[in-house]
């Protein structure tokens, strides 16, 4: 992987680490500040704008049952100062597949968009990189 | 909307027009040639690379039951030479929400990634822009 691809995969891993740690402040810091952001949680309508997006994360992470989550098979696509990562998410309720879109801000990669939806389990689950 | 936002929304509409018209060649022309591409069809594993992505579209569009599809509420996010659009998709089997990622190639906007997944119907469906 190129340096940018490695950096984007690291930013993607930081996103799932904040999710797993229920770290609302850490999650906030990972999202872009200058580019507008959006999110599509599974089964939710799309949310547009930083206030709505971060409020959704607060509700999920501070809610009564924030899910355990582990990311695997992160696959980066870098295009200049934008990038996206496709990865699997393993949750107690099943497998999801996600697109996480990033932008370069202040020399680092920040998230501008996340969509996750249901998927069959990966064909060979041995390659999972669990966060646990 | 800015000129770029309008152009990205037009490229997004062309994608759904090709889908609805079952136009495999037109669909091919809409996808990026220099940037690597990916797709996540609802309920499918992610597909990586132009050959796999276009083969999936051929299978869907030439299949026995290509779905009728109408896009609504397209919402563009432009960031330099990259962009994404969030929109609803209405199909006979229900409502989906999609992220379509674009890159600027040869002065136009080409698709590099599409993910669609289940969503509740839009809160107020009166604003739908049907392709029919």
Total domain count of chain A: 1
**Structural class of the helix and strand makeup of chain A?**
alpha+beta
SS elements, strand count of chain A: 6
**Widest β-sheet, arrangement of strands of chain A:** 2-1-6-5-4-3
Q: What is the residue-averaged pLDDT of chain A? A: 93
Amount of beta strand of chain A: 35-45%
Greatest interface and its residue counts?
A-B, 32 and 32 residues
H/E order of the elements of chain A? HHEEHEEEE
What ranges of chain A have pLDDT less than 50 throughout 5 or more consecutive residues? Answer: 126-132
Give the overall shape of chain A, derived from the CA principal axes: globular
End-to-end span of chain A in angstroms? 24 Å
- How would you characterize the largest beta sheet of chain A? 6 strands, mixed
Rg from alpha-carbon coordinates of chain A: 14 Å
CATH third-level topology of chain A: Nuclear Transport Factor 2, Chain: A
Subunit arrangement of the protein: homodimer
| CATH architecture assignment of chain A | Roll
Please give the CATH class of chain A: Alpha Beta
Fraction of residues of chain A in helices? Answer: 25-40%
Instruction: Determine the number of helices of chain A (DSSP H or I, runs of at least 4 residues).
Output: 3
């Amino acid at each position: 992987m190129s340096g940018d691809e490695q950096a984007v995969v690291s930013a993607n891993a930081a996103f799932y680490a904040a999710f797993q740690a229920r770290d609302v402040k850490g999650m906030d810091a990972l999202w872009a500040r200058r580019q507008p952001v959006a999110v599509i949680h599974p089964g939710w309508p799309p949310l547009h704008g930083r206030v709505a997006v971060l409020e959704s994360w607060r509700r999920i992470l501070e809610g009564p049952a924030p899910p355990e989550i582990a990311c695997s098979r992160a696959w980066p696509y870098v295009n200049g100062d934008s990038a996206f990562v496709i990865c699997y998410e393993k949750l107690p309720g099943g497998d999801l597949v996600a697109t996480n879109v990033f932008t370069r801000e202040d020399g680092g990669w920040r998230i501008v968009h996340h969509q996750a939806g249901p998927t069959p389990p990966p064909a060979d689950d041995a390659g999972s990189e669990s966060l646990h």
